[in-house]
Amino acid sequence: MRKLTTVFMLCTALLGAAPLAQAERLKDLASIAGVRENQLSGYGIVVGLDGTGDQTSQTPFTVQSIQAMLQQKGINLPPGTQLQLKNVAAVMVTTSLPAFAQPGQTIDITVSSIGNAKSLRGGTLLMTPLHGADGQVYAMGQGNVLVGGVGAQAGGAQVQVNHLSVGKISNGATVERAVASNLGADNQIRLELKQTDFSTAAKVVEAINDQFGAGIATALDGRVIRVRTPSSSDQRVAFIGQLESIDVSRSRDAAKVIMNARTGSVVMNQAVMLENCAISHGNLTVTVGADLEVSQPNPGSRGQTAVVQKNSVDIKKDPGRVLMVKGGASLAEVVKAMNSIGTTPQDLLAILQALKAAGSLRAELEII
């Protein structure tokens, strides 16, 4: 827990030193509607295994698949034939079809056993149709399965560092059908922010209009922005390339605190200040208050006397030990002080939840 606490304090220091707004590329903040991958999957058969295939007595679907395949090849088995297959495994083949992929292009595929095969190492995937969500075939997969990390050396000993029932085939599928795209329909595209934020959407519209002219971009809501594009495809591609490279000053995110209830690690996206409160939990007492200090100007100066409010954190674990933290009463200091006196993750979790419930913690609290 101590190591994790150190990482927490370092992240907080770095975040505190960062500027309030940082310029980011529009490509990192938003995506273009319709430009996306499409998941494909298919049922296939891997052959050529070295006795590590499915146990056919427990996986009848493997036998049925082999029989159906042999019938398609014109081979009819005698009635009552019991196949004993040790070198065959039933698998699911998965991949993602990239945006704008065209017939003839190749993509990588992942092969995963769905039976009780011990290993797919050395096997060959037979021709497998890969279907999309609409049931259409978009690619065909076939090739030698590579199971990486098998028998790797670690400290002079043989160590298995991968699942033997999962393998990959590089360029193992050929695209057979392209997904229709309506990019640039009606001479416009729609930008979709990765996170809904009205301030960021307004800044994106302002940055685009400053770059290309007034009226080019219009915010539809806190997430979607409509952008007018050139009519020809080559000009549209060049326009989108310039659009993605625009720097936008993203608005500051809402304060958020994430705590791991098992390890006690705490991560914040910015400095989180606490309001006045007092909490008693078991043998722990946490008091967050305010001290008033008088700031007196130097003799002869024209300054005025001012009253300065400074927050303080008072943490007690037992009657004989009191730990005071003066200065800005931030959540970082509260966590650091509680860890210094050996507070358990469960106590820290309970105190953070109580701070949130009492309204002293002005941030979203997420427990993982």
Automatic annotation (TrEMBL):
Domain of life: Bacteria
Subcellular localization: Bacterial flagellum basal body
Signal sequence region: 1-23
Keyword set includes Signal: yes
Alphabetized UniProt keyword annotations: Bacterial flagellum, Cell projection, Cilium, Flagellum, Signal
Location, primary (coarse class): other
HAMAP family the UniProt entry points to: FlgI (MF_00416)
Stated family: Belongs to the FlgI family.
Oligomeric and partner information: The basal body constitutes a major portion of the flagellar organelle and consists of four rings (L,P,S, and M) mounted on a central rod.
Function of the molecule: Assembles around the rod to form the L-ring and probably protects the motor/basal body from shearing forces during rotation.
Protein known as: Flagellar P-ring protein
Organism of origin: Massilia agri
